[in-house]
Amino acid sequence: MMGMKQMDYDEISKVYDDVRESDIKLINQFLKQLPTHGAKNILDIGCGTGNYTDQFQKVMQERGCMFYGIDPSEAMLNKAREKNKFVKYQVGGGRKDSTTRLLFRLYIHDRRHSSRL
Length: 117
What we know:
- This protein is α/β, with parallel strands linked by helices.
- It has a domain at about 40-115: Vaccinia Virus protein VP39 (Rossmann fold, 3-Layer(aba) Sandwich).
- The protein is about 30% helix and about 15% strand.
- Strands 3-2-1-4 form a four-stranded parallel β-sheet, with helices on one face.
- Helix 5 (about 75-85) links the parallel strand 2 and strand 3 (about 90).
- The radius of gyration is 14 Å and the shape is elongated.
- The model is unreliable at about 100-115 (pLDDT under 50).
């Protein structure tokens, strides 16, 4: 699209956590929807600085789930890694990126702040 400016998420990462945080009500609502068994791999697509991934991992660590986060911004992921060493983060997110084609039983994405598809 002409005239659309590309977002610099490496730059945004410097202030992202000052204006964004996870919503415990949303987390609790999501947890009610999860099966009590079976979901072992959880992928947060577009995890940013890991606000939600971090909280989900802490709440669900006793269920033995493995958590993964992918984001196109290395700077965002560096902040996420500082929050939680138990989540595996990797740069990715493009449609042609093999990371996004991994098979997971469940994925998480905060759609409240996403543009309409």
